[in-house]
Amino acid sequence: MAGVTERAQAEALDAADPLAGFRTRFELGDARHVYLDGNSLGRLPVATRSRVQAVLEQWGSQLVSGWPEWIDLPLQAGDAIGALIGAAPGEVAVTDSTTVNLYKLAQACVGARGGGALVTDRGNFPTDRYVLEGIAAARGLQLRIFDSDPLDGPVVDDLDELRAGDVVVLSHVAYRSGALADMRALTAAARSRGATLIWDLSHAAGAVPVDLRGAGAELAVGCTYKYLNAGPGAPGYLFVASELQGALRSPIQGWFGQRDQFAMERDYDPADGIGRFLAGTPPILQLAAVEEGARLTAEAGLDAIRAKSVALTELIVALHDEWLAPLGFELGSPREPACRGSHVSLNHRRAWTFTRALIDARVTPDFRGPDSIRLGVAPLYTSFTEVFDALDRLRAIAQRDDLPDAAPARVT
Length: 412
Ligand SMILES: Cc1ncc(COP(=O)(O)O)c(C=O)c1O
Prior knowledge:
By secondary structure, the protein is of the alpha/beta class. It has helices at 7-15, 46-62, 67-70, 73-82, 98-113, 126-139, 183-192, 242-245, 284-300, 302-324, 351-360, 384-399, and strands at 34-35, 92-94, 118-121, 143-146, 167-171, 196-200, 219-222, 237-240, 330-331, 343-347, 363-364, 366-368, 372-376. Strands 2-8-7-6-5-3-4 form a seven-stranded mixed beta sheet, sandwiched between helices. The protein has a four-stranded antiparallel beta sheet with strand order 9-10-13-12. Strands 1-11 form a two-stranded parallel sheet. It starts with 6 loop residues before the first helix and ends in a 13-residue tail after the last helix. Pyridoxal-5'-phosphate binds at residues 97-99, 125, 127-128, 171, 175, 200, 202-203, 223, 236.
């Protein structure tokens, strides 16, 4: 994308974009608003509004008799997500938050195969570290946090110290730098040492082709409200390879994971299959939204999504080099597109102040302290012109010498 420095060039890229038509399948609001935070919360798909409305109507008219139709949604939506991440039918359930799902899988692994340390990298998303920290403390296990390269993320050499019985959690796409980890190589490295690796796919699913079975992965969790566009607070998902399901037990023994759920008087006996990792009553309105988001992604196809994502992030990198590097910015993401997910971090010591000024200029990025502006591109609705405009507005902001420091905020 080097050489794209005129808006007309970005408009030409949009005109040639095979995914351009998907943009109108989302609620877009103010046309001047450039939304580059789909890696945090995706836009609302138009179809989701009517689908959720239909579920509301069912609730209003059918009340509790709606349940026979709703009760299988966690596994139905799971299969829809599974098809996007290289899982077989019956290997994914949509349930609970990513945090809770990680807790369930990590505890289940410790119970079945553990005894070793709980391991992750310092650059991993905080909730992943917190969950492992809590389990380690509760079970008297060692917690090992290793330092991965802040730009390139974890690599095979980082797993040299793994031992049999260790449970490792890694993110496929690093939340801060956007580094894309080599799932196949890291999974093989962990398995060859007798360790169990749980992947966090939150920043990958819907933006990067993921092939869990092809990579030999056994376990994964992830969010649906980012690139899968399922809405604020939509449930996460968990993947357990079918060969492993019988050996693992959820630490949360809830009635939705019970064999013969409505035979109420029996002792807990987990259901066969992925359903055993459910806990309590599923959020039906949001599950309907998960299905709609997954449907749109499947319709566009992940290869086309990835091709556009690479082109969009390449444009950000090129405009960074051309306009922003001379203003004191540094690229906080891998330069090689094959090693990057669908967001780019631009680092600057005044990143927070620039973030606030960008929001005032009708661009929504997100900020990760202390110095990163994250620009997420969602190929289903982000255009090349939007990326161009956002970087152009950021350049204008960074050139100002009268910009006062912004006050801190509770949510960033
Ligand atoms: C990589 C990663 N893992 C886990 C989470 C936490 O997800 P949840 O809040 O749904 O538990 C997030 C949230 O943004 C995330 O980015």
